[in-house]
Amino acid sequence: MESLNIFIRSIFIDNMVFAFFFGMCSYIAVSKSVKTALGLGAAVTFVMVMTVPLNYLLYEFVLKAGALSWAGLPDVNLDFLTFIVFIATIAAFVQLVEMAVEKFSPTLYSQLGIFLPLIAVNCAIMGCSLFMQQRILMDPANTQAITSVWDSIVYAVGSGLGWTLAIVLMGAIREKMQYCDVPKPLQGLGITFITVGLMAMAMLCFSGLKI
Length: 211
Description:
The protein has helices at residues 2-13, 24-30, 34-63, 82-104, 106-112, 123-136, 149-177, 189-203. By secondary structure, the chain is mostly helical.
């Protein structure tokens, strides 16, 4: 039940876009069509699913205070390296994703352009790992706490799907807006930001959801 709670909350309640506005650069730039939005969403989800559990293991067994007790170094605290290690892990997997997309889907690769390698600095992915670290430090009795590598996988999958849902919905709306009579001062980014705000407000209806 705790895993289900983490999964549902990460998609609808703690959505990286609508709750925290993380990853907005690529979210706005690539959400002009459903196809490219779905491609980037899949890439972001893959990187999250690969890096968050790995970062969980690195934090639990290497970085946090006392984590190296298994190596006879109980007083060592490498917590200050968290940012560097997390970023290095994410950058490595982004390179793998970029090479795979370029090889198997050149069209999507050209459509995503610079925003594919920029997944490495997508704050939604880094935020997912940092929130995972924060949930490790929660009281284990808290239903949002991450207490195992399985919980970290569930959280990563939910967060990735939540970000994908947000960008695909935005892509669908922007495709339809091309045929709408938008007032000239609001055309482009103006109506896009208004739409994002309205979507975020709509997602607030899930904030009272309890599992």
